[in-house]
Amino acid sequence: MDRIRVTLDGVAHEEVVPRRPFPLSIPEFIIFVKTPPPAQAMAGDAAAKKGGEEPQSQEICMLKDYRELDERSRLNLQRVLEKLYFIPSVLKVERLETSGDEFEWEILTDRGPRVFHTRSRRQVINMGTRIVVIDTHDNIYHIEDVDKLDGRSRMLLETVA
Amino acid sequence: MSLLEEKMDKELLEEAKKVRGPILKPDEELIYQAFCDLTEDGSYGHRWLFITRQRVIAATPGKESVVEVEVREIKGATVNDYTGNGNLELNTTSGTREIVRFSRSCTDQFRKAMLVINELTSDRVLFDRANGVKMPIADERRRRTTLMWLLGYLRPHLPYAVLGMVLSLAVTGLGLIPPYLMRTLVDVVISQRNFALLPVVTLTLVSIYAANTLISVGQSYTMSYLAQKIVFNMRSQVYEHLQRLSMGFYDRISSGRVLSRVTDDVGRVNWFLVWGIPNLIINSLQIIGIGMILFTLNLGLATFALLPVPMIVIGIPLFRKKARRIYHKLWRRWADMSSLLVDTIPGAIVVKAHTQEKSEVRRLTERMMMVVKSNLETTRLNLSFFPLLGFTASVGSAVVWYIGGGQVLNETLTLGTLMMFVSYMWMFYGPIQSLTNLVQPLQEALTSGERVLEIIELQPDIKDAEDAVSFNFNGDIEFKDVSFGYQPYIPVVKNITLSIRAGETIGVVGPSGGGKTTLTKLLLRFYDPSEGALSIDGVDVRDIKLECLRKQIGIVQQDPFLFYGSVAFNIMYGRNDSAPEEIIAASKAANAHDFIMASYAGYDSHVGERGSRISGGERQRIAIARAILTDPKILVMDEATSSVDTLTERQIQKALENLVVGRTTIIIAHRLSTLQKADRIVVVDKGKILEVGNHKELMQTGGLYSQLYNAQFAEEREAAVPLVS
Questions:
Q1: ipTM
Q2: pLDDT tens string A101-148
Q3: How far apart are CA B634 and CA B663, in angstroms?
Q4: Nearest CB neighbour to A48, from listed B564, B580, B647
Q5: Is residue B483 part of a domain?
Q6: What is the pTM of this model?
Q7: Which of B112, B132, B152 is the C-terminal boundary of a domain?
Q8: Looking at CA atoms only, how far is residue B601 from chain A in angstroms?
């Protein structure tokens, strides 16, 4: 179930996809869109070259902060968002070392252990105490609050962030 | 200001004075003089050109005969550029004659001379007077000012500077004590078998070393803290200043050179402050302290101890001179090798396509061999000098042993004093050597300091007038007889007169290099016109606050520059307080929202190094969104669609239609199809306006526009065939 029904001013819209324009910096900001999202990774350009026009998405509305919705709506929305935006939280950094010009990470996330690579400094984005890590395949991991991690993890992170 | 103006050293100015002295009449006013490095027969030498109100004179130092032409006989002057040299020709009533010949190093000066002459002979002025007619001035700056300026940075941190000095003195002082204790050890403890004093002497030694270690740590940290603070201040001052300087500065000085001043030169100054000055002070103190001890201890021995000093003081500078040459050679060869790598590795496709792998390997091997040879050469040089230096010092100490030993045997000297003397003597050579080594780098650091100071003292040529105003633009633009050239003697834009009504969309077309972009740069006041005036809503742009002016003019360039950061960061660049929904609205208007949402992290996606992760068309639309977000009253699109394919262009076109409503829009375009909806089209070529009118009118007159349009239309028809398949 990755579609929802949105009722706006008494009008019900079916098959709506919630999308985050700023998944990393403002995750609570949501746009509700009616057509299915195009394939990942800069598909706009590829689509333009193949099919001509870019996919036209019909926008229902924008929501500045979905956390202000009522409990049931919020949970429903969250369930879909978690599927569309798979951004595991880092609980612990087990190992972090350089191999060639890449960093190899071994981390424990709320979705289990994971090993991945990052290539340059820009793939580790600092936003205050929040850190977002993007691996070489554009997978995203995030650290809610660096200060809440254990000492060893923080020490390892110091070398890249 | 030696950075931007030709340097002319004092000697040359003196020479000019001497040469022109007997030639000029007392009441003749010198307007311009220029040095020329070729003589009449085309060999290298000195020759001078003098321009007065009455005459143009060429003269050679030490020669009586001069070439002179009366100004009233001159119809005009031209500078001809030939290979490796050029000449200045005067077109006179009696024909054309060459007045001076010069190598290309002097060309600029003679271009100016040409303009000065043309100004004298006609009333048309096409150049910036201030730049065109200026006597070369000698570079007056002395090192002393640089040094004073550097020391000025110390002022806010004076307590630390004093603390650092005091700690340095303490370290030096403490370092002088151990040999003295050794004398006590030998003369009192050992000779007189004084058991009680032994622990006292050793404990004192330990506590001195302990104190020395502690104070050294404190001294190093204080000095480093001080230097870091100073360098931080200096770097931010330079950077801030660079941001204030006008575009003209960036045109004249390549960004590489600017960068090197901010990084290398400031770094060298840093070295000077952190390492140079403290060492200079400590070494001098050590030399004075130890020297005094040596001479008061034993005058005779001290003279012998000085034996190796000339070797150090004379030898090291000689060595450095030679080493400099050899090391420079090594650096050059090293650079040769790395430039080959930098060239051929990204060019791998060309190398492989031409099967040149083997020859590339050979080329690199050759250069690597050169590096090896150079490296060995530096090793040989080092080995030929330093062992010799060490040996000389040892001979000196052997002499001291021989004579001092004799004195001990004769009981005119105690054994302890001799041993103390020998250790002081060895301590004496160290600071002399490092002081001699410091001279050259200190000079280099001062030169770097001068270069940094030059930038800081540079005044931006474009800044707010004192009574500059701010107001909300309506959008009327008027060019009134505007002329301008990046170099004062080559006008790019000539006598442009054009008025644009608020809300109008103006297309500007014409061959590249015709001055289209320059017009927009003048509008944004990156430069001021050398003649004429440019006004917005009837107010001269020079009287409008720069911030007010630039905030209300949005510009989308041909190759928009995106900064390292997220898409959102780049769109927000012109207005960092924008709300997320405003960013989205601007992107929608720029037809960019959909492709942004399709990327891996939406507006938080990184644009990659210089925007390389996204295509040209996408980059273009991000730039358009950036311009929309600032909601400018006047919008300039500088070939915003020239680097994209037709489909993308259509998308950008759609974005534009949203954009032009309620704004004055200037669209510079290469593809004329972009301009069919423009209210008026201005055709510009060679800095002049050729035609003005709408598409239909211009097609009817059959001028340059219709020629360009027909040529492009034919091209597109041909190109359309492969597009279908």
A1: 0.81
A2: 788 899 999 989 999 988 877 778 887 788 888 888 888 898 988 899
A3: 6
A4: B647
A5: yes
A6: 0.67
A7: B132
A8: 6
